[in-house]
Design a protein that fits this description.
mainly alpha; Tetracycline Repressor, domain 2; 18 helices; 0% strand
């Protein structure tokens, strides 16, 4: 009699997921519960917008609701992405053991989980002002299209920027009841930020992506990756400076971005494009970048 040995990734044997009952580990894994960096990156633009808008009457509560929404929608996005990419994931070393790609989770189970996470997102949605609700609903189309972009364009990271930055528009509208130039500048800067950090992230998969025909900005930039990331981060800082200027038009307001500028400089100076572990660490450090930007927005928003 033969026994089939189920192969699971190391991440399901340790840490948060390893502490869970074996039956639910694939569900936690497909949501990336062991990698909260994605939820942080989705959350920060909304928090920036609330802070730069002066927090409003319920700023802290709003930020907490946005945090819950970011966690739920990031999880939903990961499940949806794995549903769409399950065949591709089987052909990439880093992703071949994902629950759907490896067969440890059924497609029906994934859709049920996606529905549950979406309902949490709906709960957050009803806490917002009507304008913010409409802005949030408008994000569904670009979110649904994102997993297909890597098959269409060399710059799927730009589309990810559109999606991961959307909370900046939602957060601003939730406080002010409208969209304006400040929100659009904050959003555009966040898109450039995402282009920078996700290009760094894509460095891990350059060889596999090239073999299976998946496109990325890391492949498009080739040996000019570092220059590209510098350009993206400079564009982000320029647009964020313009956003801050609309709220507080003096040079002191712009000084709030100095710590963030220093952090970006450190990322680029210490990046080793051919070292996957180094690239992953620099990518994850953008959680700190988001915090520094939040501090800048809070200082400017509360002093204007």
């Amino acid at each position: 009699m033969t026994h089939t040995v189920e192969i699971v990734p190391d991440s399901e044997q340790r840490g948060l997921i390893g502490a869970l009952p074996a039956a639910i580990r694939p569900y936690a894994s497909v949501m990336r519960l062991d990698r909260p960096i994605g939820a942080w990156l989705l959350f920060w633009p909304g928090a920036w917008a609330v802070a730069l808008a002066g927090m409003g009457r319920h700023g802290i509560a709003l930020i907490l609701w946005l945090a819950l929404g970011a966690w739920a929608m990031r999880g939903a996005g990961c499940v949806y992405n794995d549903i769409v990419d399950r065949d591709l994931d089987r052909r990439v070393e880093r992703t071949r053991l994902r629950p759907l790609a490896s067969g440890r989770m059924t497609l029906m189970s994934a859709w049920v989980l996606l529905t549950g996470l979406s309902l949490i997102g709906l709960l957050v949605l009803v806490q917002l002002q009507p304008v913010a609700q409409l802005v949030a609903i408008a994000s569904l189309a670009p979110v649904a299209a994102y997993p297909f972009m890597k098959r269409i364009t060399w710059w799927p990271q730009a589309w990810l920027g559109l999606v991961f930055s959307w909370a900046a528009l939602v957060g601003w509208a939730a406080v002010t009841g409208e969209l304006g130039v400040t929100a659009l500048l904050l959003y555009a800067g966040s898109i450039c930020w995402v282009l920078g950090y996700d290009t760094i992230y894509a460095l891990q998969d350059r060889e596999d992506d090239a073999l299976v025909g998946v496109k990325s900005s890391a492949l498009a930039l080739g040996r000019h990756v570092r220059v590209g990331v510098v350009g993206f981060y400079l564009a982000a800082l320029s647009l964020w400076s313009a956003a801050i200027w609309t709220v507080r038009p003096d040079a002191l307001g712009l000084l709030a971005l100095l710590p963030l500028s220093g952090h970006f400089a450190w990322q680029v100076a210490t990046l080793r494009p051919n070292d996957g572990d180094n690239a992953l660490a620099r990518f994850r450090s953008n959680r700190v970048a988001g915090l520094l930007m939040f501090a800048a927005c809070l200082v400017v928003g509360m002093s204007s």
